[in-house]
Amino acid sequence: MNQCLKNLNKIEFVVTYACTGRCKHCSEGDHSSCGERINPQIAADAVRKIAAEYDIKTVMTFGGEPLLHTDAVYAIMTAANELNIPKRQVITNGYFSKNADKIRAVAERLAACGVNDLLLSVDAFHQETIPLDVVKQFAAEAKKCGIPIRLHPAWLRSATDDNPYNRKTQEILDSFKDMGIPTNEGNIIFPEGNALKYLAEYFTDKLPENPYVEDPRDVHSVSFEPNGDVLGGNVYERDIMEILRDYAP
Fold it and tell me: Does residue 151 sit in helix, strand or coil?
């Protein structure tokens, strides 16, 4: 086993960078590389191979908007469920269709393939371009299917900072109270991409540390890009276990 990966316990997939929102806080920026998506079969195969050697606790899919490519999410989560990986997580803005039948069908399929932690990104930034009524419709269907669901807001500077964006975010979160959906800690916006472009005035002091950067000599989470890039290799070109074996920071 590669000693840099001895504590590996999480697998992440950026399913796609395509998105239904155009958020001011998005670290991806203008989504210029949104045409690619992760290959469902290769991704599911990677989950099985990695979990055979490492004690994986979490498999996560996000984006972009991952539910624009539900076949990939279903394949990944089905593999994780079959392997009894404890946390099977999807982060979504909840807006992938306006069709009620499709919204219901996606929620039912997510439940069937074992998703047990649905994080719904709702806040002042997402709701500038994403209709809240459609998001609530998806949330209601997911809850009806028994999927554990939490609200996952993005906070500007901190969750307690008093600024117009945070105040609007709190209003949006409060509107979910009658649905009985809890809110998790969310995340603090890091100044990259659109956030640096549109919210620079809020980052005039010392910049916060990027919470997603970890020690490359002690990797806990392996993340796949839509084009197959992972840990300096590409899973479309080489077997994932070869990439993990040869990884060096």
Answer: strand
In this predicted model, what pLDDT tens digit does every residue of 134-186 receive, in sequence order? 999 999 999 999 999 999 999 999 999 999 999 999 999 999 999 999 999 99
Instruction: Taking each helix axis as running N to C, give the angle between helix 100-112 and helix 70-82, from 0 to 180 degrees, rounded to the nearest 10.
Output: 20
The torsion of the CA quartet 98, 103, 106, 112, rounded to 10 degrees, works out to 170
Q: Write the burial class of residue 173 (CB in 10 Å: 0-12 exposed, 13-18 middle, 19+ buried).
A: middle
Residue of 91, 94, 105 lying closest to 60 (CA atoms)? 91
pTM: 0.94
- Rounded CA Rg of the chain: 18
239-248 long-range contacts, Cβ below 8 Å, gap at least 24?
239/49, 240/45, 240/46, 240/49, 240/50, 241/49, 241/50, 241/53, 244/2, 244/5, 244/50, 245/2, 246/2, 247/2, 247/4, 247/5, 247/219, 248/4
Q: What is the pLDDT of residue 30?
A: 59
- What is the per-residue pLDDT for 212? 72
CB 156 within 8 A of CB 165: yes
